[in-house]
Amino acid sequence: MTITVAVVGAGRMGRLHAKQLNDIPDVRIVGAADVRAEAVEEFTAEFGGTGSVDYRELLDRTSPDVAYFCTPAGEHLDQLTFAAERGINVFVEKPLAPSVTAATAAAEIIERHGVLCTVGYQWRYSPLTDVARDALAGLPPTMLAGWWYWTIPPLPWIRDRRTGGGQIFEQATHLIDLMRFLAGDVSTVFAAYADNAIPEEELPNWDASAVTLGFANGAAGSVHSTYALFPGIPGSNGVDVAAREVLVRVNLAKATVFRRGVPPEETAARAGWNIDQEFMTIVRRNDPPAVRATARESAQSIGVSLAANYSAVTKQVVDLRDFMTNPPDDATIMPL
What we know:
alpha/beta, Rossmann fold, 14 helices, about 25% strand, 15 strands, Dihydrodipicolinate Reductase, domain 2
């Protein structure tokens, strides 16, 4: 069996996934779509397949097994709806959607049509996350702490909070999603954001964020992030999870388990591992229970990020259940 894939969005992430998919023997890229004709030409010259500036035309013409949507969050609902209605399995980059309403609608579409769908939360699939889960087995987490120290985003639409949604929404959502995977649902959110370091004309966005999370199981969590720094800082992102007599520190490079009286146990990432290998295995086996980053789970993670934005703007503690049930329609907290 050959798995055929069409890539929608021929930019940085689309090309990264294409390179990883090309290394899987039974996967063939049949085409790419992008509104920029020159990007499509460059993509197909490197990875093969046919091209189009209209993803609808491409998907109807190629009828792939899987569509990869590597596009801004505001485009995802229409795109995955089009694919799901045609029985095409879906990989969609995070964030799933720009609002709770759209993310919930996306989950309902996927469930209604029964296609396989994963959102690009690769930390859920990482073997290092399995190391963390095994170390915490039977021990309720009591504290979770995530951090992401980064620089001004190179892409203009991510750089601007009006279109990118801010770092907690666009980037640190990985941390929030991993924390939910390890500790369960979040119940309350409180956040403070800053823009002290970088002028508005250079970064039309918050440049630092501090978020406090209350988990339904009683655990306390926090996420700290900034765009004020620079690449190359060792350990610039990760999540710590504390339970009784054990601390787990995990990112995509390694997992470290600390226990009293013994040396730390370090596990390095498996060379060459990536989320595309995991999803192609799921497609190959037609194995819905193996999907860890479902659209429904991802909608919950998006809700936490948007609740943090809302809290930072309103200076209120947000009850997440109320927020998800009656989400505000407020352009100051979500991308356009």
